[in-house]
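Record type: monomer structure entry
Structure origin: computed from sequence
Chain ID: A
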Amino acid sequence: MRAVRFHETGGSDVLRVEDVPTPTPDPDEVLVRVEAAGVNPVDTYSRRGKREPPAFPMTPGADLAGVVESVGANVTGFAAGDRVFGTGLGRTQQGTYAEYAVARPDQLARLPDGVSYPEGAAVALVGVTAWRALVDHAGLDPAETCLIHGGSGGVGHVAVQIADAAGATVVTTANEEYGRSLPDLGADVVLDYARDDLEAALVEAGRPDVILDHRLDEYLDLDAAVAAQGARVVGIGNTTPEAGFSDITAARRAELTVSLMSMFNTPDLSRVLARLARLLSAGRLAPEVSRTYDLDEAGAAQDAVLNDSVFGKLVITV
């Protein structure tokens, strides 16, 4: 099979497509013929030396969508021919930028008919992240107001749809261009994150009960300033290692709760993926595929996910 691999850390030029043996699933594993793989910033961490890969050479990629090729002797939940999507690979095991990938059953769920493979790959990691943040960590209530920073990004545009499906009032930030599309995804209020009066505008839109923050180092003080009493902030990312409150008084005033999370700590990925599948099947969730690449363009895809502004997700089609 063809697979993208890197033999050493470095720039995107260390990624190369190689012919390698097709993996054989262990008794508790599933072999998936990959049709599409999502592209995420986390896919670049091992290649850039920010995280130790489980082995060299390494295939990156956390997300996949495809068809079950075969299953191990102990697997009962899946069978050859099943359409599936999944996430959580590429960290302690080989990833998904390949024609075939081996996954555990708890990393997979069935992909509904009518949902394309690129859409399945696009929604997996970001969908689990958004669900875990809003539902599991924040306990978002239908009567509450939810602020989602960066509503046009990979996680953000899915989080907008999940919050809307939950019945919350959805406030989000985005640039002017991408913001025009967000009401169609369920956003009630869309604000340009570059406006000078953003804090006042967020308060006017309604102090949020739940805040999804993808840049804690930039927005944590803003979160405290605009939050409703007893608000819950869930942090899913940052651009620099340092983050904190310059004025802790505002956070204390609101009795703010801050939770930090990583999608890779999800106890049962398949449980959340199955719930995302229900939203997909019901038409309540529609991931936006901004651009597609083939395996030979994996380096360009990783450069783009780190450096380009896009609405939705980048996907590699196999």
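Annotation 1: The longest helix spans residues 117-137.
Annotation 2: The chain has nine helices and 15 strands.
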